[in-house]
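QUALITY CONTROL LOG
STEP: pairwise intake check
CHECKER ROLE: data steward
CRITERIA: each record must contain a sequence immediately followed by its structure tokens, with no blank fields

ENTRY 1 OF 2
RESULT FIELD BELOW
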Amino acid sequence: MSASGPNMELTPVPASRTRATSATESLGRTAARSVGWVVVDRWGTRIASLLTILVLGRLLTPADFGLVALAAIFMTFAGIFVEQGFGKALIQRETLTAKHSDSAFWASLAMAIVMTAGTILVAPIVAAAADAPELAAVLRWLSIGLIINALTCTPYALLERDFKFKTLAIRRLASTVAGGAVGIAMALAGYGVWSLVAQTLANGIVGLVALWAATDWRPRTRPSVDALRDLWPIGFGVLGIELLAFFGSQADRMLVAAYLGAQALGWYYMAMKIVMIMIEIFSSVFAAVSLPVFSRLQHDRSRLSAWLYRLTGASSAITLPCFALAAALAPLLVPWVLGDQWQGSVPIFQILTALGAINAVAYFDRNLLVATGRAKDALMLTLGQSLLGVILVLLAAPHGVLAVAVAVVARQYLYWPIRIRLLRRAAGIEPARYFAQWIRPFFAAAAMGLGVAIFVWRWPTLLPSTLAHLSVGAVLGTFIYLAALGVIYPAIYADVRETLARVRAPKTA
């Protein structure tokens, strides 16, 4: 009799296995639905940000952007101390009480008050050191954002912990659109650099109001030293990571400003800003969901590594072709969108797209290490990478802004083997399987970029308008990529169908 016959003996499935399977499916559905709202959040807000910066780029000068970029360096540094890593600690902690969230809030607010006062006092000194007198007033106004950040970080972390990505998406989109509207209106009115300052503050204020209106959480208890001690091990590691990441990520801007001035910094800032927005749009959709998912799976290495493979492959397949296409079309695209005053950003942007290619997967590394309680490993990883980056940028800066861009990209690739080694220790990944999730889409994207670049170089006047060239190049690139990916990585299409099925699946227990 066949195995499917009526007399087949059925073996009972252990209850623990059934519960584990149910938990896996439930988490998968929750993560898939969360990805949907993170898409709205990251894509909606980042597209709005991209449109805003493109419009402002036409209305303002590279020097205006360079001045705000200088101020942003200082404010980013101060903002790290405001949050103190407590946001990530609240998400990672398995058992969370009101004392933990309330204490994190009060500690952040107290630090924000101190940092705001300090910024106001030292602003003239910073402006004198940068030889930019207008920088002092810009810093003083932007310091208000530190208070806004302190009022935001705890409720934001609690909503992210609970997968409330719908609320976060609506809030971020509203604040981005409002800030962009204010900035563009002021730029049209001739306010110059102050339109960028107003955009930043309006974004923060609208986001703060929307966030507090959407959550029931309010700080109701006094700060507890014991609660802060519970959060501090993770918070300290994240704080250290953020500080090291700051020096690793901002050294390039500081040295460009020091060697080449505000206009060159403006060109570099614009190129990097667009690349980072693209990274946010195409890869951090999955990265934002990864920390809560990894945290839930921190004690199950097999499921943890499986989710890492899945997220790495999906992010790579989406992100890499976008950067390859952008690099190939940049000589036509950047002047057409921003104006001829931004021609200096074109080669910088093309180099930095290689940074986006690796960040399609690097985003997950730190989240996995933090989620598995290895914040110190993530700290040492960031330390080594930041030190390498600073050394490379220091060596490159005297040779110009293009050399700085190459150094920034080289840092990421040179340190990748160490990142993979840490992932193997934390989640038991197979390096070859992990690397394959990235390299197959990379080859397909490289073929696309080469084909489109040849088209742009060989037939620059074939079509009557720049828009026509861009459109044909985009269509050509899409066909090349899909064809190459179908040959190199055919399983990706099944993965896409499965992901769509999970998103559309009805919510069950």
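ENTRY 2 OF 2
RESULT FIELD BELOW
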Amino acid sequence: MSGLFGDASARAAGRAGRVVSLRVARSERAPSILAGGLITCRAAVSSAELAAQQDIRHAVFVAEQAVFQESDHDAHDDDSEVIHLLGRYAGDLAGAVRLFPLDHAEGLWQGDRLCVLRPYRVHGVGAPLVRCAVATAGAHGGTRMVAHIQAPNVAFFVHLGWHAEGDAELYVGLPHQRMSIDLPSPDVGARTMRELSAGIRH
């Protein structure tokens, strides 16, 4: 299983040339204007949105953290069942996360590739993205979600209701902790998705 769920909720430089770099530049010029902005989380649907989530991941996992040398794209990204979520702060693209079913019969889902661009980490975008991933998996009939969390972010996930499972393990040379959470019912998950799509304030 792939990991990197929660890597960047505490650590992203934008990649020049596309949407992400433009958004980062704007936020760095006028951070005070963004204070108290609306946070929205919803699925990436259009080709532009799907490209944007890949740009955000590249900015964090390749350009900033150097976890991957050229790209973090893997086979899951080509799976039609994968759901990519985008987080926005005050209308700006700010973060991303993906989720996918591991076992439909058992209702088991996995979340990974959580990342938030550097200028937005002080605005609390990470937690709504995790909540949206959990809600989305529940709305799709899942009953449990697992993730592999980088060690510095375990406490953050515990605060969100996740539980550690087993011992720490290495993924791409970094210590990760397998964690899990029970998913909400489809009705509750769908309601939370609507709330996060409409937006919340940090």
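INTAKE CHECK: passed for both entries
DESCRIPTIVE NOTE, ENTRY 2: The radius of gyration is 16 Å.
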